[in-house]
Amino acid sequence: MKGKIISVIGIIYIVLSVFVTKFLLDRNDYNVFETQNSYYYCNSEIKEYGATHLVLFEKMDDYTPIVGKNIYYFDANKELKNGVLASYDKDEKVFAIDDTNYSVKNLLGVPKKGYFLLGTIINVLTTKVFYLIFIIVPVAFLLVYEIYLLILYVRNNKNRRDSNEKSVNKN
Predict the structure, then answer these.
(1) What is the pLDDT tens value at each position of the chain, 171 positions in all?
(2) Cβ count within 10 A of residue 63
């Protein structure tokens, strides 16, 4: 029973650490998690959703259909802004809001869906302190433990060899 509980805890730990590491590695300069066809953003700055939501934005190849709609984008200071998309140039990959041109890299788009409480959970899981305490420190302890076992193994083999040599010398 104890072995099964430890196995389940180990599996949960591995899944959690892979998820957190993947989430941290796939964030862009604007702290947005980017997948193949979506953006995920967790912050309280999106009016339609609360502070605890993880908000899904769908990636688009052509933003022309949403010209005239209210969108979210990042300005030059990497602050999330909300404005009406005035124009979009597909060839130059720029869009305009309030007579200011921005690169498509700054565009999040229109929010599609919000996941309640996941924003808070992900914000906690991706903090430096959480990552240090729950990912780095346990791995460091396992490394030290493996080195300790290696030292014990070498020491025991040396003692066996010494005792074998003594017994051979007596004969």
Answers:
(1) 778 898 898 899 899 888 888 888 888 777 888 888 888 888 767 777 877 888 888 887 777 677 888 888 888 888 888 888 888 888 888 888 888 888 888 888 888 888 888 888 888 888 889 989 988 999 999 999 999 999 999 988 877 776 766 666 665
(2) 20
- 71 exposed, middle or buried (CB, 10 Å; 0-12, 13-18, 19+)? buried
Rounded to whole angstroms, the Cα distance separating 157 from 154 reads: 5
The set of residues, in sequence order, having a beta carbon less than 8 Å from that of 125 and lying 6+ positions away, is 16, 19, 20, 23
Half-sphere exposure in the Cβ direction for 46 (13 Å, CA): 28
- Where along the chain do its domains lie? 2-126, 128-171
